[in-house]
Amino acid sequence: MNAITLLDAQKLPLWRRPIALLFAMAIAMPLAFATWSALLNNFVIEAANFDGSDIGWLHSIREIPGFFAVGVIAIIMFMREQVLGLVSLILLGVATGVTAWFPSMGGILTITMLSSIGYHYYETVNQSLQLQWIDKARAPQMLGWLLAAGSGATLLAYGLIVLTWEAFDLSYNLVYLVSGGLTAIIAVACFVIYPQFDAPHPQLKKMVLRKRYWLYYALQFMAGARRQIFIVFAGFMMVERFGFEVHEITALYLINLVINIFAAPIMGRAVAHFGERNTLLFEYMGLALVFLAYGGIYWFSWGVLLAAALYVIDHIFFALALALKTYFQKIADPQDIAPTAAVAFTINHIAAVFLPALLGYLWLTSPSAVFVVATLMALTSFALALLIPRHPTPGNETRISALNPQPAE
Questions:
Q1: How confident is the model at residue 321 (pLDDT cuts 50, 70, 90)?
Q2: Are the CB atoms for 363 and 53 separated by under 8 Å?
Q3: Residue 1: predicted pLDDT
Q4: What does the mean pLDDT of the chain come to?
Q5: Given CB 3.0 to 4.6 Å as the disulfide criterion, which of 4, 150, 334, 407 pairs with 201?
Q6: Phi, psi torsion values for 404, nearest 5 degrees
Q7: Type and span of the H or E element at 265
Q8: Can you spell out the DSSP letters for 165-198?
């Protein structure tokens, strides 16, 4: 199939344009990944008797492909980013679909690794395509709408789990097969429906590390470390400490999604209005307070309602992370977007490879200490975000560079 430019793509029907493909992929990915996440804690405890250390190791294994996301640069030398994104979605869907076929420690780790390769390579390419295909002026709002679309798809999946899990005595196998299968089917359909799109700026097909992007790299590192604590231990706490069952933890995710469907576009407008620095400062201070309150659940034996409320608030704050994407879009050379997306994804996952396993051992001794570590990470991110200029541009990447301007590399 011949490629067409983004300008020529505007002559296509709306449903065949690049933005429609981004929305289709945004809907497809959560059907598999969100369902896997919702069932995970209950599945591993029931099928393989996982404890805090085991779940830590699982997530460390899951993050290894993210650490090697820089390998995307080598793959796009012979495969288009758009094709790689859809192939990765198919792998995510198929691996998710067969998760329940391997109910042992070794089996769960193996199939998790495969689904993780699909997820992380898809996310790397997806971020690159978003920043290449969406105009800078519209990026914050459009990224917010893409988040809302993904939340809507996840809402549908979670809603069906909540309504049918107990009523029809569903099995893990059936739910995983249906959700993973739908993701794979949508990805295959996207191959057939959409032409290949050419962005106006050819991407460098080599590793790109630029000194002037250092603040973006640092914020990515902290975001990856901090987010792992939420992903791994916040949900695990709800099951281990408060005994949440599948439909109950899914109902909590459902509340998150309903809020995010409406909040994500608002977050996008907030980034456009207040700027990346102010929105990221708000996010990081809010997360620090939430993680500190998580620790209070163990120090003061606070109840399940507060824990559930904090989980929802936590999830809302993370939606503001789209500001980090638009910050990079504003400071980047256009040809750097694809290779830097891969490098940034690797940086984001440096801590993710070892932190879950390491903190899993700390969890066995003191769960509250895990959340204290997360609080310190959020405060470190806050300090770094203070260096973001009000109007970032190439040559004005940080407030330090504004005082001592250097030519863009």
A1: confident
A2: yes
A3: 55
A4: 85
A5: 334
A6: -135, 75
A7: helix 246-299
A8: TTTTT--HHHHHHHHHHHHHHHHHHHHHHPPEEE
Q: What are the distances in angstroms from CA 89 to CA 33, 67, 84, 112, 369?
A: 10, 18, 9, 14, 36
The DSSP secondary structure of 198-209, one letter per residue, reads E-SSPPP-S---
Beta pairing class for 196-198 and 3-5: parallel
Percent of the chain surpassing pLDDT 70: 95
Enter the pTM of the model. Answer: 0.76
What CA dihedral angle connects 174, 114, 69 and 391, to 10 degrees?
10
| Cα 34 to Cα 152: distance, rounded to the nearest angstrom | 11
Burial 321-347 (b: 16+ CB within 10 A, else e): bbbbbbbbbbbbbebbbbbbbbbbbbb
**Nearest of 130, 344, 72 to residue 216 by alpha carbon:** 344
309 HSE (CA, 13 A, CB side): 8
- Distance CA(86)–CA(78), nearest Å, equals 15
Tokens 């429906």 locate to 193
How is 273-292 classified by DSSP, letter by letter? HHHHHHHHHHHHHHHHHHHH
The reported pLDDT for the residue numbered 389 is: 92
Structure tokens at 260: 């995010």
- 3's enclosing H/E stretch is strand 3-5
Tokens 């809010």 -> residue:
286
Residue 145 CA to residue 143 CA, distance in Å, equals 5
Residue 179: band (very low, low, confident or very high) from pLDDT cuts 50, 70, 90: very high
* DSSP reduced 3-state for 396: strand
What domains are defined for the chain?
3-400 (1.20.1250.20)
Place of tokens 């997820």: 119
The predicted structure's pLDDT at residue 69: 76
